[in-house]
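Need a sequence for this fold. Nothing fancy.
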């Protein structure tokens, strides 16, 4: 690369990074001005947040990842047998891609292309080194829909895509937004393409609550890191010790909500957002929702988003459903 080309690509990268900081600052300003203060859950996942989430997936109280992996391990051959014969795989929010290994092996073939999409470059680097013996790995450090556009642009003649959206990440969308997202996803696919989507099912509230408020405090650290991230990236002065993690089951909306509760009356300043924000004792910032699903609801979502249901596998130890949908 010439010196000039290098300087211009560096400037572009800097511009993108500045735009990301401005967007983060603007979202923080908007979210903290609401009567129920909130911060978008996508900001939980910087490099430290992604590592803490990876640790959550190993907690004995958090059954989602193991249920998802069990289903994929036990039913990989059944799932593969329902896929079109020439298929390339895209995974939204792959992380290190550990759960996907079984299905990639079951699909097989000499030149299986796998496009893991994630915001964590570290997780994707591990994903590539772990799975490159099974598939040609094309990591994409991008948002879901941008990554989808990049991957589907590489569709070859006669080929279909299998999109994987595992781990019940669909539950982190508000129900209405989940449907809009699935419709957008459907819009970026063609008839013959398929979606494998994992969804956590409603279960006893105590079991769900402890999964999001583990006694080791890993989920608490994951949640509090959001304030740490604001301090690091936006020049905030949050005292993390003056907030505590809280998980709540909202029965009416069938979701676990994570909040950060202020332990005292306090004020924080966020330089990049030019914002001073006050908290009363007990006031919370709502940081995440994890919606839980009924089986009948999942089939309705497929129908409304333009998919047909081709298969469903349920884990009995930790009620969780793996769903295979085809583009109609
Ligand atoms: C990524 N997502 C499906 C997780 C969940 O269960 O909602 C994120 C998480 N939040 C706290 N623990 C795990």
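Here you go.
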């Amino acid at each position: 690369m010439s010196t000039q080309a290098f300087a211009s690509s560096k400037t572009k990268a800097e511009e993108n990074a500045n735009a990301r900081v401005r967007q983060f600052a603007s979202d923080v300003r908007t979210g903290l001005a609401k009567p129920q203060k909130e911060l978008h859950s996508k900001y939980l996942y910087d490099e430290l947040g992604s590592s803490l989430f990876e640790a959550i997936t190993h907690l004995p109280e958090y059954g989602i990842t193991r249920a998802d992996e069990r289903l994929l391990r036990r039913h990989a051959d059944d799932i593969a047998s329902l896929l079109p014969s020439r298929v390339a795989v895209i995974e939204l929010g792959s992380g290190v891609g550990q759960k996907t290994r079984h299905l990639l092996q079951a699909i097989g073939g000499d030149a299986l292309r796998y496009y893991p999409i994630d915001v964590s470059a570290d997780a994707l680097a591990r994903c590539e080194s772990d799975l490159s013996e099974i598939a040609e790995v094309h990591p994409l450090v991008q948002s879901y829909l941008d990554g989808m556009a990049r991957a589907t642009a590489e569709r070859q003649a006669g080929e279909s895509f299998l999109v994987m959206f595992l781990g019940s990440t669909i539950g982190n969308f508000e129900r209405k937004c989940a449907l809009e997202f699935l419709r957008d996803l459907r819009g970026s696919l063609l008839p013959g393409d398929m979606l494998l989507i994992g969804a956590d099912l409603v279960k006893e509230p105590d079991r769900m609550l402890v999964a999001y408020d583990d006694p080791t405090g890993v989920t608490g650290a994951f949640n509090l890191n959001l304030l740490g991230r604001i301090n690091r990236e936006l020049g905030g002065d949050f005292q993390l010790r003056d907030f505590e993690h809280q998980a709540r089951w909202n029965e009416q909306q069938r979701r676990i909500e994570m909040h950060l509760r202020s332990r005292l009356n306090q004020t924080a300043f966020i330089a990049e957002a030019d914002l001073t924000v006050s908290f009363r004792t007990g006031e919370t910032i709502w940081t995440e929702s994890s919606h839980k699903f009924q089986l009948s609801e999942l089939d309705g979502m497929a129908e409304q988003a333009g998919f047909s249901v081709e298969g469903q596998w349920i884990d009995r130890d930790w009620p969780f459903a793996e769903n295979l949908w085809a583009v109609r």
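For context: Residues 56, 64, 167-169, 171-172, 212, 219, 288, 290 surround N,N-dimethyl-L-histidine (CB under 6 Å).
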